[in-house]
Design brief:
Number of strands: 0
Radius of gyration: 20 Å
Distance between the termini: 61 Å
Helix content: over 70%
Order of helices and strands: HHHHHHHHHHHHHHH
Number of helices: 15
Oligomer: single chain
Strand content: under 5%
Length: about 350
């Protein structure tokens, strides 16, 4: 490899790593650092985005749809832009061979690596989806990709801290114990369900591509970013609007009438898996519902099913992961929610 190519590769890696660190510091790390002190002092991180201070979500209407989309958009727009920049920058700046070496294996070790790489991201499921798209375009295997996606939400250090200060540290421990097998187990399962011929494979770049000028690399980055945005965002916005309107049907009037019966646990686990929230949005939602007298089992189910996946994020990854795999993940998340509800009842958590 010539000196020019080595210099170009080093500079491209430097730009990408700078984007990762600076972007996450601005969008995630620094804001959550300050928010943790608020959570410790107030035992709250704000109101429930689902229904505010009311006992039920607003009736299905255009106002409900746009109201939720606006509140949700304000909470996640910076992270979504960062996710798109990272997902496109990964493809424009990094060689596919490097991603393949790190995350291309179908071993359990590669799945663990994907899970560990996702933890510092602390993205919500939809904002992490564009990065997963980029990983898959650069030959990351299904298992590490899924583990990366799920660990962003389920092993998010900030959310675990918020959960401890707001709901109690036993809830944080409860979530960690269930989240590790969810992240790694579904990552392991992804490689088996997807099969050997699933991959969205990108060939390693030709040697001459390594020495392209930064102007050419910038144009390619812009093209990929624009393409991802136009492909992912419209369907994402439509589904968010529909879910915002359907809140009243998915989450009926909250109160003591919703107990620990199995059908409530299953219903809330399913609703939590489909619904979309910003990072850590599950914490004030569960706090508000427990204060209104909901059973501990459906609350635990929501804590485990609201963050990892949603209908919009599943749709965003429909071209990057096999539909059969995405359906399996959705069913498994609901199952983990039911398990969480059952364990919360047995452990008499509050």
């Amino acid at each position: 490899m010539s000196t020019d190519i080595r210099t170009s590769r080093a500079m491209r890696w430097g730009v990408f790593l700078l984007l990762v660190v600076a972007g996450l510091f601005y969008v995630k790390w620094y804001p959550y650092y300050g928010r943790a002190f608020d959570a410790a002092a107030k035992h709250s991180i704000g109101g429930s985005i689902l229904m505010g201070d009311a006992t039920a979500a607003p009736p299905a209407s255009w106002d409900a749809a746009f109201g939720y989309a606006l509140a949700y958009g304000k909470a996640i727009w910076k992270a979504m832009i960062l996710g798109l920049l990272l997902g496109s920058g990964l493809q424009a700046l990094l060689p596919a061979s490097a991603v393949h070496r790190a995350l291309g294996g179908r071993t359990f070790g590669s799945t663990v690596m994907g899970g560990l790489m996702g933890i510092p991201g602390m993205m919500c499921t939809c904002c992490a989806a564009p990065v997963v798209v980029g990983l898959r375009k650069h030959s990351a295997a299904p298992g590490p990709s899924v583990a990366f996606w799920l660990s962003n939400t389920m092993l998010n250090p900030a959310t675990l801290v918020f959960t401890g200060f707001v709901l109690g540290w036993h809830w944080s421990l409860f979530r960690i114990v269930l989240s590790i097998p969810l992240v790694l187990g579904l990552g392991w399962l992804a490689n088996r369900v997807a099969g050997p011929g699933d991959a969205v494979v990108a060939q390693p770049p030709a040697p001459e591509a390594e020495s392209r000028s930064f102007a050419d690399i910038g144009k390619r980055w812009l093209q990929i970013f624009t393409g991802m945005t136009l492909r992912l965002i419209p369907e994402y916005l439509v589904i968010v609007l529909l879910l915002g309107a359907a809140r009243a049907w998915m989450f009926p009037a909250i109160g003591p009438g919703i107990g620990d019966e199995w059908f409530w646990v299953l219903a809330f686990a399913l609703a939590g898996m489909l619904f979309v929230i910003p990072t850590a949005g599950e914490v004030p939602i569960v706090q508000a519902m427990l204060a209104l007298g909901i059973g501990v089992a459906p609350a635990a189910a929501l804590l485990m099913t609201l963050p990892p996946v949603s209908l919009p994020s599943l749709a965003m990854l429909g071209r990057s992961l096999p539909v059969k795999l995405l359906a399996t993940i959705a069913v498994a998340v609901v199952a983990f929610g039911v398990l969480a509800g059952t364990l919360a009842t047995l452990l008499q958590m509050r």
